[in-house]
Design brief:
Length: 188
């Protein structure tokens, strides 16, 4: 009985598939997803980092907390930062924030941060003059700490099927859950 049901169901499903394919419906484009958790895990491996300003102070950055900004198709990174050195009397804690876009680097199959925008470098207990001095280093610190930092690397097996179809990663879309990497025809 089950075998007969199976044998009659298979041609029906095949016909339904052919009928569906004949409809002028847009076919979904292949894509690859990366969760927010995966991004956070990869970025955390590259921190903490120290940035010395010789004779003045050292800035120590902790692992950033990433935040998805789908409405801007960007990510934000906020890091705890500590500063200490001869120009300051004691160690100060603060926060450092940047946001950035993403790009695909084909040479090593990575998703990288680029187009960084410095937001702020704040220390609640610093004198305004010292805070101003530190903020003047903010854009350079942003570039040194996150410009071109790798957020994800696709493995060869992640791209095996799309490579065979002549496709390569194209668009990168930031969503509420993470990233969606769309594929486009490979350029000759």
């Amino acid at each position: 009985m089950q075998r007969r049901l199976f044998l009659t169901a298979v041609p029906s499903l095949a016909l339904a598939g052919v009928a569906r394919a004949a409809q002028p419906e847009a076919q979904p484009q292949p894509h690859y997803s990366v969760s927010a958790g995966q991004l956070q895990q990869v970025v955390a491996q590259r921190f903490p980092r120290r940035y010395p300003v010789p004779g003045l102070f050292d800035l120590d950055l902790q692992a950033p907390r990433l935040r998805l900004l789908p409405e801007q198709n960007r990510l934000s990174a906020e890091m705890a930062v500590e500063v200490a050195g001869p120009a300051l009397r004691r160690r100060h804690s603060g926060t450092f924030e940047v946001d950035f876009a993403l790009r695909y680097e084909a040479s090593d199959r990575t998703i990288r941060a680029y187009q960084l925008r410095f937001k702020h470098l704040q220390f609640a207990d610093l004198q305004p003059a010292a805070s101003e001095l530190l903020n003047s280093y903010g854009p350079a610190l942003a570039e040194q700490s996150l410009l071109e930092v790798v957020l994800h690397q696709l493995r060869p097996q992640d791209l095996a099927l799309t490579d065979g179809l002549g496709l390569q990663p194209g668009s990168i879309t930031v969503t509420d859950q993470g990233l969606v990497i769309g594929f486009v025809a490979r350029q000759p």
